[in-house]
Amino acid sequence: MTGASTWAKELFATPLAALLTLVSGAFMTWLGWLALSWLLFHAVWPWQPAGLCAVRTGLCWPFLFEKTRLILFGTYPFDLQWRALAASLLLLALAALTGLQMIGRTRLRVRAFVVIWVSGLGFAVLLLSGGVLGLSPVPSVFWNGLPILLFLAIAAIAGAFPVGVLLTLARDQGAYPVLRRFATLYIEVARGVPMLTVIFVGVFVLPLMLPPGTYIAPVPAVLIALIFFHGAYFAEDLRGGLQSLSRGQREAARSLGLGYWKTMGLVMLPQAITRSLPSLVNSIIGAYKDTSLVVVVGIHDLISTARMSFNDPGWRSQALEAYILVGLWFFASCAALSAIGRQLQKDRETERGRVSQE
Amino acid sequence: MKLLTLTAAFAVTTIFTGAAMAGPVLDEIKANDSLVCLVNPNSPGFSVPDSQGVFQGFNTDFCRMAAAAILGDAGKADIRGIGFSDSMKTLVARGAHMASRSITATGTRDADTGMAFVATTFYDGQGFMVPASLGVSSAAELEGATVCAEDGSTTLLNIADWFGDRGMSYRVENIADKTARLEAFFSGKCDVYASDVSALNSDRLLAENPDDFTILPEVISAEPLTLVTQPDQELEAAVFWAFQVMLNADKFGITSGNIDTIRADLDAQPKSVRRLFAEDGATADMAAKLGLPQDWAYQVIRQVGSYSEVFERHLGSGTPFNITLAETQNASADQGGLMYAFPIR
Question: Which CATH class is domain B6-124+224-324?
Answer without folding.
Answer: alpha beta
